[in-house]
Amino acid sequence: MSYPLRRRPPWRLAAAAAAVAGSALAVTACSGGSGGAAAAGPVTPAGTVTPAGGGQAAGFPGTAGSPSVLPTAMPSSTGGMTSMPASAAPAAAQPVAADAVAIRNFAFAPQVVTVKAGTTVHWANQDSEAHTVTSDAGAFGSPVLQPAAGYSFTFAKPGTYRYHCTIHPFMTGTVVVS
């Protein structure tokens, strides 16, 4: 059995035509910057938008060459974040004969200390954030050190002991025991 085609009321046809025209305007207006259809490219009589010159989509200019290195966010002394290019490696720290290491500005200072076997090294968290002092090889490890807390470890055997903060792995240090 076939059903007769129902005629739509004229107001429905007008509403559908307005919706189609409105969506075409929305596409045109959203295709480019503040200039509407002129910024997106010429509008053809059929209402389609063509790319803005050179076969490129509007808003996506062509580029040549390799991408540049983006800066990496690093904590700053003011508690905010500053930019440091990823390609800028920190300079190698010079060993310092000391038995005290301050933790401040998201760094161990001095970064490399030299001590004699049997020396106890003290770390003091002078930062506004919690940190740890954790041996890379498992030789020692502090609990989480809240601000103003400290940790001490006695180095009995000669060797090079690298360590880091488990909360902030970019924080590293070394104790050289002779």
Structure summary:
A 5-stranded mixed beta sheet has the order 3-6-11-10-8, with no helix packed on it. Strands 5-4-7-9 form a 4-stranded mixed beta sheet, with no helix packed on it. A two-stranded antiparallel sheet has the order 1-2. The chain is built from 2 helices and 11 strands; from the N terminus they run H-H-E-E-E-E-E-E-E-E-E-E-E.
Please, could you describe this protein's structure?
It is a single chain. Among the domains are: 11-40; 96-177, Cupredoxins -  blue copper proteins (Immunoglobulin-like, Sandwich), CATH 2.60.40.420. With 178 residues, the chain is α/β, with parallel strands linked by helices. Strands 3-6-11-10-8 form a five-stranded mixed β-sheet, with no helix packed on it. A four-stranded mixed β-sheet has the order 5-4-7-9, with no helix packed on it. A two-stranded antiparallel ribbon has the order 1-2. Helices cover 14% and strands 29% of the residues. A hairpin with a 5-residue loop joins strand 1 and strand 2 (81-85). It has helices spanning 10-30, 37-40, and strands spanning 71-75, 81-85, 96-97, 100-104, 107-109, 112-115, 119-125, 134-135, 150-155, 159-164, 172-177.
